[in-house]
Amino acid sequence: QVQLVESGGGLVQAGGSLRLSCAASGRVFRSYTIAWFRQAPGKEREFVAAISWGGATDTADSVKRRFTISRDNDKNTVYLQMNSLKFEDTAVYFCAAKQFGALTPLPNEYRSWGQGTQVTVSS
């Protein structure tokens, strides 16, 4: 199992940027696929982006031209760069990890989850 801690959330005006970080513990971090999900009040948890151990990525259409996922295996950290933020991006953002298999947007495939970080975009 890998333990995950998110950081970097906050309050930002529409059109602004934030960079979220997902720091992981564990010696085998580089073998994990890491994903970002988000959940707004009253809504289902939604896939945002994922990155495999080899650097392959998948990004939701709703954020594809605005958000970028990356990883630094030496720092055991995955990042989510969020640009041109919109009010509808307001949510709690979670990172999650899975050790085997292909990239997937399905939250049930991920075994380890962080506690989440709040992102609030003011209009």
Give a written overview of the molecule.
The chain is mainly β. The chain contains no helices and 11 strands. The strands form 2 sheets. Strands 2, 4, 5, 6, 9, 10 and 11 form a 7-stranded mixed β-sheet that branches. A 4-stranded antiparallel β-sheet has the order 1-3-8-7, with no helix packed on it. A hairpin with a 5-residue loop joins strand 5 and strand 6. The chain is globular and about 40 Å long. The mean pLDDT is 94.
Sequence-ordered SSE layout with sheet pairings:
Blueprint: E1 4-7, E2 10-13, E3 18-24, E4 33-39, E5 46-51, E6 57-59, E7 67-72, E8 77-82, E9 91-98, E10 112-113, E11 117-122
Parallel strand pairs: 2-11
Antiparallel strand pairs: 1-3, 3-8, 4-5, 4-9, 5-6, 7-8, 9-10, 9-11
Identify the notable features of this structure and list them briefly.
mainly beta, 123 residues, 4-stranded antiparallel sheet, 7-stranded mixed sheet
* N-to-C CA distance: 39 Å
Largest sheet: 7 strands, mixed
What string gives the helices and strands in order?
EEEEEEEEEEE
Rg (C-alpha, Å): 13 Å
- Assembly type: single chain
Number of H/I helices: 0
Outline:
By secondary structure, the chain is mainly β.
